[in-house]
């Protein structure tokens, strides 16, 4: 049974929520105002959903369900938002993330890398598992972030689950063969 878009008191239903929203919290009111202003445009609504997404990047199919639009339309809207620089495609799986969330997540990973290498100045490698513990990010989200940093030339992702800081001394071929 579908719920009405209007309540008996005349309020507008913006979307369903998994959590109870407290009306006296400033950030709740700001998010609801942002959601309300995005109702007129599917593109803006999709951007709001991505900005509010918890946990990481989202695939187009999940976003289509959340915004209640066909997948093809959602993919077109995502590409429009990407052209505007508001969202980014992350990883080979085709996950999408809001540009602000991507910047925050990359900053979090950079901070963890800097903290590790500051505490362990004699090391040039860090195990990816250590980064997962330090950042609290899942592997399916951290790995594409590391590849993004590697693509930018900030780090080198090595086989075996290790990350080398850029500019660290490489082993000569004879020493590398002894590994």
Describe this structure in words.
There is one protein chain. Helix content is 51%, strand content 12%. It is mostly helical and 179 residues long. The strands form two sheets. A three-stranded antiparallel beta sheet has the order 1-3-2, with helices on both faces. It has a three-stranded antiparallel beta sheet with strand order 4-6-5. It is elongated and about 75 Å long.
How is the largest sheet built, in terms of strand order? 1-3-2
The global form is: elongated
Helix fraction by DSSP (H/I, runs of at least 4)? 40-55%
Q: Count every helix, treating DSSP H or I runs of 4 or more residues as helices.
A: 8
According to DSSP, the number of beta strands is: 6
Largest sheet, described in full? 3 strands, antiparallel
The parts where pLDDT drops under 50 for at least 5 residues are none
Strand content: 5-15%
First-to-last CA distance: 64 Å
- Radius of gyration, in angstroms, nearest whole number: 21 Å
């Amino acid at each position: 049974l579908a719920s009405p878009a209007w309540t008996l008191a005349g309020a507008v239903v913006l979307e369903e929520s998994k959590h109870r929203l407290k009306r006296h919290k400033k950030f709740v009111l700001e998010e609801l105002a942002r959601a309300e202003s995005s109702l007129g445009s599917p593109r803006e609504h999709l951007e709001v959903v991505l900005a509010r997404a918890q946990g990481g990047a989202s695939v187009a199919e999940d976003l289509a369900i959340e915004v209640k639009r066909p997948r093809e339309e959602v993919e077109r809207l995502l590409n429009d938002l990407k052209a505007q620089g508001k969202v980014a495609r992350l990883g080979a799986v085709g996950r999408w993330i809001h540009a602000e969330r991507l910047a925050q997540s990359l900053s979090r990973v950079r901070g963890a890398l800097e903290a590790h290498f500051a505490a362990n100045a004699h090391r040039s490698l860090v195990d990816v598992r250590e980064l997962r513990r330090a950042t609290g990010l899942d592997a399916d989200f951290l790995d594409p972030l590391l590849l993004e940093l590697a693509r930018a030339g900030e780090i080198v992702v090595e086989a075996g689950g290790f990350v080398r800081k850029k500019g660290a001394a490489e082993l000569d071929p004879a020493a590398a063969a002894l590994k």
